[in-house]
Amino acid sequence: MEYKNFTTFGVDIINGVAWVTFDFPPVNVQGQEMLADLASLCLRLERDRSVKVVVFQSANPDIWVCHYDTDLLRDMSEEAVSRDEAKLLDLQAVLERVSKLPQATIAKLEGYARGGGHEFALACDMRFAVRGKYKLMQMEVAMGILPCGGGTSRMARQAGLGRALEIVLSARDFSADEAEAYGTINKAFDANEIGPYVEELASRIAKWPADSINACKKMVYESIDQPIDQALKSEAYWLYQCTSHTPTIKRFVYADDNKAQYSMENQHNWNQLVVDIQEIN
């Protein structure tokens, strides 16, 4: 699978990790060019099981991804439509596709991510940000609209109703530490810490079976909207998707034959054992 001919970013594949680096001067604006590139990227990733993790980062030292291109909004209809007539925006459709990728997705946030840029980060599975450089904002309410790239719905799931409404209605900048406290990012880092952490995390996840990664993602997202009894049934469903597509049974047989689970030494060393057992296929 080739990852070339993108206008707004470059892609490097290293040991099962796709490093997607936005480089679309002057501000990585989120316009049709970027949306077309992301749709093309998703099409390739959806069919490529050799890539296990996707990290989105920026070559711009100040901005991760800018807000949605205002040129795409200025010609919107001033007439209200019914719920049945409302259609998804391109931004919504593309970011939903990003959120459903079978790979684990990580936003490495070393600059501003406002408006649609922040909504893009929310569509990723995990988010890590740099103190003093990262700022998030949803400015849409001040423009007379609302976040329209999944910002309201995804943020409510991440931060809870009250904090989501504070972010959306205040239309102010939030720092990395505030974002960590509110739950919109996983963790805030000093500038020299984020690179090694994200690289180690991505490399570790990339060791696991692709179908297992996908099943974990699907189940976590499904569970948000399900009562516990349905969620447990979904867990059972995804379990059998894993056992039918990964070497899990071979690994359990190997562990049982070697009585690995009864070793206290092994109980102390699970962090490394899960890496070592990847050799059983």
Q: What are the key terms here?
A:
alpha/beta, 2-enoyl-CoA Hydratase, Chain A, domain 1, 281 residues, 6-stranded mixed beta sheet, 3-stranded mixed beta sheet, 9 strands, 14% strand
The helix/strand series, from N terminus to C terminus, equals: EEHEHEEHEEHHHEHEHHHHHH
Mean pLDDT: 93
| Assigned CATH superfamily of the largest domain | 2-enoyl-CoA Hydratase, Chain A, domain 1
Just give the CATH class of the largest domain.
Alpha Beta
| Derived structural class | alpha/beta
What shape does the CA trace take?
Answer: globular
Q: How would a textbook summarize the main sheet?
A: 6 strands, mixed
Q: Enumerate how many helices there are, as a single number.
A: 13
Q: How does this model look, in words?
A:
This protein is α/β, with parallel strands linked by helices and 281 residues long. The chain has 2 domains: 9-205, 2-enoyl-CoA Hydratase, Chain A, domain 1; 210-279. The protein is built from 13 helices and 9 strands. It has helices spanning 32-46, 90-99, 116-123, 140-143, 151-159, 161-170, 176-182, 191-205, 210-223, 228-243, 248-257, 264-268, 270-276, and strands at residues 9-14, 17-22, 53-58, 104-109, 113-114, 126-130, 135-137, 174-175, 187-189. It has a 6-stranded mixed β-sheet with strand order 1-2-3-4-6-9, sandwiched between helices. Helix 3 (116-123) crosses helix 5 (151-159). The longest helix is centred in the last third of the chain and has 16 residues, at 228-243. The radius of gyration is 20 Å and the shape is globular. The mean pLDDT is 93.
